[in-house]
Design a protein that fits this description.
2 copies of one chain form a homodimer. In chain A, 29% of the residues lie in helices and 32% in strands. Chain A has 8 helices and 10 strands. Chain A has helices spanning 4-13, 25-38, 51-58, 62-74, 102-109, 127-133, 179-185, 204-210, and strands at residues 47-48, 78-81, 85-88, 114-124, 140-150, 153-163, 190-201, 217-227, 232-241, 247-252. The interface between A and B is large, with 49 and 51 residues. The structure holds a DNA duplex (19 and 19 nucleotides).
Chain lengths: 253, 253
DNA sequence: CAGTGGTCTAGACCACACC
DNA sequence: GTGTGGTCTAGACCACTGT
């Protein structure tokens, strides 16, 4: 039962779609196959049956089966080649570095980060902020500064500017949830973002705040976030203690 | 002729698909609409006709038209909402998140990069490199070190390790092209990568090489690149002069 | 050659948003 | 209601791969 062929048959035969569910059939199929792949029931390099056979076995049409396969291709879980077939590509698991990312801290340590609100006020936009947000100078904006910590140690100083009229949430909410979650709740539909990652030395004040010596290397991140109407709804300028934080980025193709 | 409705009509009526071409119909349609959007013929916020009408006007079936629209959604150029319609979202930036090399970034930015090969030799893998590449310790690997400059100033020291058997190109090629381009030419089909971005202070030697004082903030990037067979084909550990280089990352939704 | 994925068609029904 | 996009079907032909 450990060879790819029989493993695949059991994967498909012990499953059937739920036509009463509001979840699309193609999504049900894709999710089931994804579970089979990430749980190694379908091993690295295994060939799947052709899509017509799979569609028949699951009782769906070929286009529906194709839609599911396209989902797996997009997620990077299979590779398809015309005339050859469909092959499983096991996603790589990341070996931890000396520097662990905040994501790792959260998932392995299970410790929620804490946020301290340093500043939250409505001010007229200066030239830099106005240009970033695409507003006229002097327009009212919300200026946030927060200090984020994990395991009792400071990780990042986060500075955000938002147009005054998009912020409808209570300011105290910021301690308990992420900014993006609050924007979504306010009805803002996020569309895209541009982030710039750099590095520079810490000033004395920044060092004190982040628990680093003056001149220590800091990671910097600037971000402009745009909503579906094409309006810039956030300009962020963050500072990370590089000795305790790094960014992990996953790319496909 | 400058209101959205008539602009769209002229966009569609002055175009017809080429059924003799090997290029898929849905791709021809998507490309045509994309050009109309990025050239602002279809302005920000304009509503497109419904997909049935557009399909008729172009003489394709609705599924084919849908495939084209899905492409535009994936590229972030339109937003669709059931019961409402399809709306144009002018992209703020045009570069999708992709697997690029520093060489490609710089040359597309018009800053003719130069590369100096500091080191290129076949050596047995040490413990760290062997673990990263998923090889046994002592397996032969290629060890590269290059110094990349733009406009006559050093930008990055790039250190790469590759399994000895994937490197089929001439070592001198590395001066004229990016490593990824050479891998592709060698028949390696890249699949995905994990990158970790951090920062640290420069040692004296690193500072001399990159034209920075000792202790200056440097950007670090480590990357493991995987091919379609799931093999790690590259482990990179790069060092960037943060005063002259930063990473730009584009995210959609 | 036979088998694979890639493309395309012409219908159909549904869920949702607005009037 | 009416109109929109979202899903699904049952076929068809083609291009590519390996034998």
């Amino acid at each position: 039962m450990s060879d790819p062929t029989s493993a695949q048959q059991s994967v498909l035969e012990s499953f059937s779609v739920d036509r009463g569910s509001p979840i699309p059939l193609w999504f049900q199929v894709a999710e089931h196959l994804e579970h089979a792949i990430v749980s190694h029931v379908l091993p690295q390099g295994a060939y799947l049956d052709n899509e017509i056979a799979m569609a028949e076995r699951l009782g769906v049409s070929r286009p529906t089966m194709r839609r599911a396969m396209e989902q797996l291709v997009d997620r990077g879980l299979v590779v398809r080649r015309r005339g050859i077939g469909t092959r499983v590509v096991q996603p790589k698991v990341r070996r931890p570095l000396e520097l662990t990312s905040l994501y790792d801290d959260l998932s392995s340590g299970g410790q929620a980060p804490t946020t301290e609100l340093l500043r939250c006020e409505r001010v007229p936009a200066g030239p830099e902020v106005a240009a970033r947000l695409g507003l006229d100078e002097g327009t009212e904006v919300v200026h946030l500064e927060r200090l984020r910590s994990a395991r009792g140690e400071p990780i990042a100083r986060m500075t955000n500017h938002l147009p005054g009229d998009v912020v409808t949430f209570a300011e105290t909410d910021l301690v308990g949830a992420g900014l993006y979650e609050l924007l979504r709740r306010s009805g803002v539909r996020l569309h895209s973002a541009v982030q710039t990652l750099g590095a520079r030395a810490a000033t004395a004040a920044e060092g004190r705040l982040l628990g680093e010596p003056k001149g220590a290397a800091l990671l910097t991140m600037e971000r402009e976030t745009t909503d579906e109407q094409g309006r810039v709804v956030e300009y962020a300028s963050h500072l990370y203690a590089a000795s305790r934080y790094s960014f992990e980025i996953h790319l496909v193709t």
